[in-house]
Design brief:
CATH superfamily of the largest domain: P-loop containing nucleotide triphosphate hydrolases
CATH class of the largest domain: Alpha Beta
Shape: globular
Radius of gyration: 25 Å
Structural class: alpha/beta
Number of strands: 19
Helix content: 40-55%
Number of domains: 3
Strand content: 5-15%
Strand order of the largest sheet: 4-3-5-2-6-7-1-8
Largest sheet: 8 strands, mixed
CATH topology of the largest domain: Rossmann fold
Length: about 650
């Protein structure tokens, strides 16, 4: 194989026994380096772990690697465990972090760890997991970190070397093998250059026209028409296209708006129908209503893809897209993350998205993560990116910043979970605070912020002591239980300690497990609850109230997860053996989300099974795992298929 210079350089460092971090644009070919490490380990009877930020990417990599390495690949993602002792083991970063803290000896045979999307260390909600994984990495393991372009990769590498005292090489690549051409649709005109856009598209509008974040309503703006943009793509032969949208509902709405087009030739239509039917049969979707709803779109070379869809149907869409028969796919941003599905063109519906707490202009790094899907290596000389611009919501200065700024630096989001703190306290006791200087946060921050981080750590330890998780510098039984259930520690452990978990029926325990993981959509109506569910809600509210009061008083953020019982009726019916179609009528939650939350509850139940619980509770939990993890919920079945 002919390697690019940056790939060659990375592989040479690996051959010479160095750990490596590679910073390169999306679509540059970073996966080739990971494949070299895997092949080299297999050839030399060594073991390797590959971590990914999301389960969908873990599943995709499992399928990809299984094609090449067959029975030498396994996967662990909490709700999936296939060939868990394989020499190449794929897992989510959370699973790897938990192994380091709870069962480090199980990693003794693994020579390499590959962190895909290592810039996730900057993620507000989950970045701490990457940081902890690198902080406590076993000394015998070498690292390959793969990242989108980040300007402070030297700082990240410097921190790693400072705490591990081992050789780490940095490889930077700024050039894409397929260059990007960025164009704009604004006021229903296509602009090829940024300057043309600002002169014509924003004509008569300057920065003083904006009041707050938007233009006043009396300024007239012509609407961007979908038909105009699609016709332009057809005329210029710019299909296939990935169209990124930041709303699930809008993916389907835009697909419907495009239904007046038919992108397939008669021969392609025959191939498409045959392939779609075959995939539906393979994934038991032949009578599935959502598969029938998408069929008319598929037959025109159009598709949509989002988290509200059944995982099996999403996989069908992905396979249709890789067959090159889908010419336009409307999808949310997870389609951009690591999954190797490029197109000739990428379109952005808008350049604003929700960032955890509020809507904001798209980060440059996120823009190029998605834009990087444009341009198929070996097929296209150039990739095309179209930004749909509404001057009412974005200024030329904001737009320039998104497209022309350097990608944002990676910042530490260190905020150790209660379970992490308990595991570390079990090992280090009061010397726990000596661990903080190993963090990327300590390496990056000024003394005032370092001091605040230590105070927060001390506050959390005091809270754990006040609630009886630590006594006389030892974890209590409740503390041992809490150390195994990441993200749900305090509420679940209080229910364990007062005997509630033991007393609950299997059905009530199943309802609780889903209520713990569930997050309602903004504005989602609270459902009717039957008497047992209302009673369970009262019990959990009574426990979470004092916990939240203490956390607010001591400024611990985020607050411990509370229970939401929106899926109580659905999970109760599912455990009792009802069909999936029946339980969907009991909730307004999207079918893909129902699958996701049921799978998350299976993962949580498996964590409870690892805790010090009675045999009676173990039997209840095992029964629930069997009852919940069936049919469409069983992700192992999907992967094995």
């Amino acid at each position: 194989m002919q390697y690019d210079p940056f790939q060659e350089k990375s592989i040479e460092y690996i051959k010479n026994g160095h750990s490596v971090i590679v910073s390169a644009p999306t679509g540059a070919g970073k996966t080739v380096i990971a494949e070299y490490v895997i092949e080299d380990c297999l050839k030399n009877n060594k073991k390797v772990i590959y971590t990914a930020p999301i389960k969908a990417l873990s599943n995709q990599k499992y399928r990809d690697f299984s094609k090449n390495y067959y029975d030498k690949v396994g996967i662990l993602t909490g709700d999936v465990s296939i060939n868990p002792h394989a020499p190449t083991l794929i897992m989510t970063t959370e699973i790897f972090r938990n192994k380091i803290l709870e069962e480090k000896s199980s990693l003794a045979q693994y020579a390499w760890i590959i962190f895909d999307e290592i810039h996730y260390i900057d993620d507000y909600d989950r970045g701490s997991v990457w940081e902890e994984s690198l902080m406590f990495l076993p000394e015998h393991m070498k690292v390959l970190g793969l990242s989108a372009t980040i300007p402070n990769v030297d700082e990240l590498a410097g921190w790693f070397q400072s705490i591990h005292q081992r050789s780490l090489k940095i490889v930077k690549e700024k050039k894409r093998p397929v260059p990007l051409h960025i164009a704009y649709q604004c006021q229903n005109n296509i602009y090829d250059k940024f300057n043309s856009l600002t002169k014509e598209g924003f004509k008569g509008i300057d920065s003083s026209s904006y009041r707050g974040r938007r233009l006043p309503s009396h300024i007239q703006i012509a609407a961007n028409k979908m038909t105009s943009l699609v016709r332009h793509l057809e005329e210029e032969e710019l299909l296939p296209c990935i169209y990124f949208v930041f709303s699930r509902r809008r993916t389907e709405y835009l697909a419907e708006e495009t239904m007046r087009f038919d992108f397939l030739t008669s021969q392609e239509k025959v191939e498409m129908i045959e392939l779609f039917n075959r995939l539906c049969e393979r994934f038991d979707l032949e009578t599935e209503p959502s598969a029938q709803r998408i069929r008319p779109f598929i037959e025109r070379g159009i598709a949509y893809h989002h988290a509200g869809m059944l995982p099996t149907l999403k996989e069908v869409v992905e396979q249709l897209f890789t067959s090159r028969l889908i010419k336009m796919i409307f999808t949310t941003e997870t389609f951009a993350l690591g999954i190797n599905m490029p197109a000739r063109t990428v379109i952005f519906d808008e350049l604003r998205k929700f960032y955890g707490r509020a809507h904001a202009t798209l980060k440059t790094r996120d823009f190029y993560q998605m834009a990087g899907r444009a341009g198929r290596r070996g097929i296209d000389k150039e990739g095309f990116v179209f930004c749909r611009i509404n001057p009412r919501y974005i200024t030329p200065a904001q737009l320039h910043k998104v497209i022309h700024n350097e990608p944002e630096e990676v910042r530490s989001r260190f905020n150790a979970a209660y379970a992490t703190i308990l595991n570390l306290y079990h090992k280090y006791e009061e010397k726990l605070y000596d661990v903080y200087p190993l963090s990327f946060h300590y390496f990056q921050e000024h003394k005032s912020n370092q001091k605040k981080a230590v105070e927060l750590l001390k506050t959390k330890v005091k809270l754990l002591k006040d609630f009886g998780y630590i006594r006389k510098n030892r974890l209590t039984q409740k503390g041992m239980f809490a150390s195994t259930v990441y993200g749900y520690e305090l509420l679940l452990s209080e229910l364990y300690a007062d005997g509630t978990l033991e007393r609950l029926s299997e059905y009530a325990l199943g309802i609780l497990s889903v209520a713990l993981v569930y997050e309602p959509r903004k504005g989602q109506m609270r459902p009717y609850l039957n008497k047992p569910s209302k009673q369970l809600e009262r019990i959990t509210e009574k426990i979470i109230g004092p916990i939240h009061r203490m956390e607010k008083k001591t400024r611990v953020r985020p607050l411990s997860k509370k229970c939401y019982f929106h899926l109580a009726q659905a999970i109760d019916a599912w455990i009792r053996g009802k069909d999936f179609d029946e339980i969907l009528r009991m909730t307004d939650t999207d079918e893909g989300e129902v699958v996701r939350y049921f799978r998350m509850s299976v993962q949580l139940l498996r964590e409870i099974l690892d805790a010090p619980i009675s045999e009676a509770l173990q039997e209840k939990v095992k029964f629930l795992i069997r009852q919940i993890n069936r049919d469409v919920i069983d992700s192992e079945k999907q992967l094995r298929g």
